[in-house]
Amino acid sequence: MPVLELTTLIPDRTPAQVLDFCLEGVNFPKIFPERVTPLGDIDINNLRIEAGRQFRFRHWMFNVIPSNWTVVIREVSDTHFIDEMLKGPMAAFRHEHRVAAGEGGTLYTDRVTYAAIGGAALEWLLVNAYMRRIFEARHRNMLCLLK
């Protein structure tokens, strides 16, 4: 399975501040570079990421193709949290969000392990570049939001 890992230094923020920002559900659509909408009875303004919590959302790929996801939060600690797709457009998707002290701020790392339903050929043709674009944009958005 492909693995994408990106790390960004977020200046003048502690690991606790960065992780807390990520754990607030209201920030998810702000970080994500494409439109996402919650499904079901989720109040995004009152959603705190907690271990065992499941939620559903619609991700608008390229801002036009609807894709429904069901995810579960597998782990939450003071240095990371992990979400995993239970149902959605991928054969597998596991996303680790990690924070660590860095010089002058916090190192924020996304580590994503995934597999496309169409296999390695589809990953090579489309999915790998798409994932890189999405996660690079997430890191840019976090930098802007946490200034």
Provide structural commentary.
The protein is an alpha+beta fold and 147 residues long. The protein has one domain: START domain (Alpha-D-Glucose-1,6-Bisphosphate, Chain A, domain 4), CATH 3.30.530. It has three helices and seven strands, in the order E-H-H-E-E-E-E-E-E-H. The chain has helices spanning 15-23, 28-31, 120-145; strands at 3-11, 36-39, 54-61, 65-76, 80-87, 90-102, 105-116. A seven-stranded antiparallel sheet has the order 1-7-6-5-4-3-2, with helices on one face.
Features:
alpha+beta, single chain, globular, 3 helices, 45% strand, 147 residues
Count of helix runs: 3
So, the CATH homologous superfamily?
START domain
**For the largest beta sheet, what order do the strands appear in spatially?**
1-7-6-5-4-3-2
Name the shape in a single word. Answer: globular
Compressed to H and E, one letter per element, the order equals EHHEEEEEEH
Multimeric state: single chain
Secondary-structure-based class equals alpha+beta
Strand content: 35-45%
- The name of the CATH topology is Alpha-D-Glucose-1,6-Bisphosphate, Chain A, domain 4
Unreliable stretches covering 5 or more consecutive residues: none
- Main sheet makeup: 7 strands, antiparallel
N/C terminus separation? 34 Å
InterPro entries: START-like_dom_sf
Protein name: Polyketide cyclase
Organism: Pseudomonas nunensis
